[in-house]
């Protein structure tokens, strides 16, 4: 079984992935953005490094999803391959930070790769407003994120909502992070767990 946690930068994906992995005894797979060889260059010059960064993430996520399905284990995944293709890369293209030629090349590669993998059994989407994202980004203190612009986060949120509105590849659970503090409140985490249990039992609607 594969469970995936999706959401904008700073929405709490890594934290929720860790908490759920501990509770359900799932094997967690975390996004390791810090070690990406292009991440620092990208935030310094998005137009120059956007294509390199997105292809690098695409390669890593494809490898992870392939290995997860082959392992036969119950796994929870921090961010999905679909977010890169439907949110981050199109956003860079629309902002003029990825040339059309590069974007078209990237998306054709994604379509080929995505035909070889199976979607998550359950997608947990963390919905968060821009102020909440900013507060959580500042709290974790990653230096390369200091230059993230508010309009960038806003555009990403709009694309996430559009993607989630049409998502039909499997079960979907939406968590409102503005109203659900699963990091600090045990009762909020318990509420999330109850909704996941209900989803697995076919009761959640």
Structure in a nutshell:
The protein is 57% helix and 12% strand.
Walkthrough of the structure:
Strands 2-3-1-4-5 form a 5-stranded parallel β-sheet, sandwiched between helices. Helix content is 57%, strand content 12%. The protein is α/β, with parallel strands linked by helices. The chain has 8 helices and 5 strands, in the order βαβααβααβααβα. α4 (81-94) runs antiparallel to α5. It has helices at 13-24, 39-44, 46-71, 81-94, 100-114, 130-140, 150-166, 186-200, and strands at residues 2-7, 27-29, 75-78, 122-127, 171-176. The mean pLDDT is 90. It has a single domain, classed as P-loop containing nucleotide triphosphate hydrolases (Rossmann fold), CATH 3.40.50.
Itemize the secondary structure elements and their pairings:
Elements: E1 2-7, H1 13-24, E2 27-29, H2 39-44, H3 46-71, E3 75-78, H4 81-94, H5 100-114, E4 122-127, H6 130-140, H7 150-166, E5 171-176, H8 186-200
Parallel strand pairs: 1-3, 1-4, 2-3, 4-5
Q: How many structural domains?
A: 1
Shape: globular
> From the helix content, strand content and strand pairing, which structural class follows?
alpha/beta
* Percentage of residues in strands: 5-15%
How many β strands by DSSP? 5
How are the strands of the largest sheet arranged?
A: 2-3-1-4-5
CATH topology: Rossmann fold
For the biggest sheet, the summary is:
5 strands, parallel
Helix tally equals 8
- Top CATH class: Alpha Beta
**Segments where pLDDT lies below 50 for 5+ residues?**
none
State the CATH superfamily name: P-loop containing nucleotide triphosphate hydrolases
- Secondary-structure arrangement, i.e. CATH architecture: 3-Layer(aba) Sandwich
In percent, how helical is the residue content? Answer: 55-70%
Distance between the termini: 20 Å
The residue-averaged pLDDT reads: 90
Specify Rg, calculated over alpha carbons. 17 Å
